[in-house]
Amino acid sequence: KYPTECKEWKQVSQSYNVPHVMRGIHRSLYTKVVTCMQGSCYDFVVDLREESPTYLQWACVKLSDKNRRQMYIPPRCGHGFLSLEEGAMILYLQEGTFDPPNELDFHWKDDAIGIKWNEPENLIVSAKDKIAPTVEKRFGSIPYKNDSKRVLVIGASGQLGTALCKLWKGSVGTYSTVSGASHCLIHYDLQTATDDDAEWLMEAVRPDILCVCGGFTWVDGCERDPEKAMAVNCHGPAKLAKLASTKFNAKTVFYSTDYVFDGSKGAPYTEADPVCPMNAYGRSKLEGEKAIMAAAPDALIIRTSVVYGPDPQKKNFACQMLRAKHAGETKKVPTDQIACPSYLVDLAQMTKLMMDKDAKGIYNVVGSEVLGRLDFAEKIAPGIGVGFLTTDVKLPTPRPLYCALDNSKAKAFLGDAFQMRGVADALADWAPTKEDVEK
Predict the structure, then answer these.
(1) Which of 42, 92, 175, 188 is the catalytic position?
(2) pLDDT by residue (tens digit) across 59-74?
(3) Active-site residue 26, yes or no?
């Protein structure tokens, strides 16, 4: 869909720059590959293709003679750069030749695009770039204006990440597995990413808010591979949170779990209750909470539970129950595992509202009903469940039985704006069809 190979270079151009020169945003009908042959610069690409799913989104990469990175500029995408030192030499390989009638320029500070140039006080801008028109003046209208906050969503191919990206217009998301691959997302693996990878991602996006909803949530898988659980649920997120706090002045949101508790209280847990995870998944999330707060003391930690709703990968519990119902099957479901199922559309909305009010610290945000897993299944797909007691079977991983969470703190913080619907209202809003849950 988007060309990645160039057949022939028809023009090679070069520019020599003193520090703090800003050039752009310039759009051509042909491919460009940009290299910084000497010195360094921040290089920017902007999607100006009106039919593109990433229209008006941008990314930044630091190019230098040391890192030897290059920037690929697709046809009809905008380009700009900010030189960082004396003698920054920028080389362009072009698939077409300069064609004045078809070359368009756009204002470098256009709010519809919202590039974070981080420009110095002594910025040098050409007279032509200073008076370049906005996207709206060029094209007549724009479909939406990007949110004033630039949001980086780690795990945007998952169910909650998808909801967050829909809510925050112009957000940038990542995926980590082949099943989540998309030309709209950036590949980033919390397990294997190095410090350089983390800095590259944060520099490319320059977020105001970092939302880490990607994680290793397969409870039995975490028990089998606790090192992976710690890498994905603790060390990887903390690495990004530290950069967000110390270098990019960005707030972090980290999603945790009711499994930080052992279920022995017998009543809904508050944020102040002692934690005591009983499996590797819960331990990795708890260590993630601690590492995030150490790296970014103003971070927001949201503990949630049994997240369900529209799922692009169709993996959550509700999708499984509905899929079985359509197939005429029944499912064995525990009666004694009790929690608060959380509708992901509401969870995403509460996240945004809490960030709008600069929430920090740990908050429980879960659905309004305390339900056993069988009761939850029956509300989703009546007649689907065959109940059993967890204590009567040998599970590969121990699980807490009573993990309801108390929403009182979040309710007090948001007041009447707090809304986490029960299952019936959530299903009415979601209205899933057979196609929505079939793989």
Answers:
(1) 92
(2) 999 999 999 999 999 9
(3) yes
